[in-house]
Amino acid sequence: MAEALAGQQALSWRERISYGIADMGFNFYWANIATFLLFFYTDIFGISAAAAASMMFAIKLVNAFTDPLIGALADRTTTRYGKFRPYLVWGALPLGAAAVLTYTTPDLDHDGKLAWAYGSYLLMMVCYTAINIPYNALSGVMSADPQERSTINGLRFICAFGGSTLVTAATPALVQWLGAGDDKLGWQLTMGAWAVAASLLFVLSFANTRERIAPPPGQRSNVLQDVRDLAGNGPWLVLFFLALIIMVTITLRTTTAAYYFKYYVGRPELMASFVPTYMMAAAVGAAATPLMTRFIDKKMLMIVLMSLTAVLSAAFFAVPPDQVGLMFVLQAALGLVLGPKSPLAFSMYADTADYTEWRTGRRATAMTFAAATFSQKLGTALAVAVIGALFTALGYVPNATQSSGSQAGIVWLMSLIPAAFALLAVAVMCCYRLDGARLQGIQADLAARKTSLFPQA
């Protein structure tokens, strides 16, 4: 009973914020990867768009399959500090070192550079996964209260969008300042600075958070059983495909933005404020999530948000290159409607972990989040593959005036293509069945089970 009550108690603001700031650290990496890495490979590192896109797709695909393994390992980790929190400290240094290597340009021929890119990027993504998946799972064991989960995930993504805003705004300037005209050195040192800052935030998060929800006493299961449990979890399967589709939608626009402003608008310097505009608006949207979920069911809210995303993305198709103000207005609007998406999704992942425990008597929180991360990485890989294939088919040439076909492809990748994926996300979300009333009943059943196990507590 004590455990059940502890899982329902309100968290302090110190703990909520401490959990959130770690995601700012993760976005010191992720925002660089999503916004700049393909551009870095084609225009700084010196490999073709097709080679870079193929490499990133292959690594994302391989890394996606490591996610369930890391989730299974985290679920079976037992320390005095909990199952998931220690990974924030254990993985900080390896991740930082791998990131610096990824943004290092060695003096090698094309094949040597490509081999370096494969090795360093794979290492960075494995290290990122090894710390990020336990962190994601941590939100599912800090509290059993669905509204509390919405709150901590809302705060988490405020910090995440804040970190992304800082990275996208400051990285180009840091590259110029630290590199002093040498872009290759500038990118390496800039990534090193972000790695140090991220590591400090991970340590602070570890020190100020606690795990309160444990698997049922005496639980015994293997990895295959965990996978079978997820495969039988209908709400989780919906979220799996939803995450994949939404990640395609976001990655298409985020990765294309650098090319959009360099080759279509003709003002690459606007990137320093365009992506941060989205991130700041998304932070506002994330901040509003706990309030919205008090009045709107999570499923319906997600459907409305993705419908608006489709409309706003499609609107970019009609924006001429000289209407910069309209681009920024649409970008801010997209940030507002997509901002709540992430805290909503991660709160629902935690809910599906409860659903698995209620249905099977087993709990695998990290595996639940790991398999969700798996789908996100597949979505990112698919988006990069689409970009690379389209660029190759339309004759993209780095650092040169683009053909009309290449420019048209860039505009499609910023507008109609992500809009189509957003509409697909709406269709998928209509299949989600774990609404608020059903979840409330599940929570009550789980609390009653724990009370029966600990009648004297």
Automatic annotation (TrEMBL):
Q: Where are the transmembrane segments?
A: 21-41, 47-66, 87-104, 116-135, 155-179, 191-209, 230-250, 270-288, 300-318, 324-340, 378-397, 409-432
Record InterPro entries: MFS_2 (IPR039672), MFS_trans_sf (IPR036259), Na/Gal_symport (IPR001927), Na/Gal_symport_CS (IPR018043)
Task: Spell out the subcellular localization from the entry.
Answer: Cell membrane
Q: Which residues form a coiled coil?
A: none
Q: Which UniProt keywords apply?
A: Cell membrane, Membrane, Transmembrane, Transmembrane helix, Transport
Q: What is its main location?
A: membrane
Give the membrane topology.
Multi-pass membrane protein
The text of the family note is: Belongs to the sodium:galactoside symporter (TC 2.A.2) family.
Q: What is this protein called?
A: MFS transporter
Taxonomy of origin reads: Bacteria, Pseudomonadati, Pseudomonadota, Betaproteobacteria, Burkholderiales
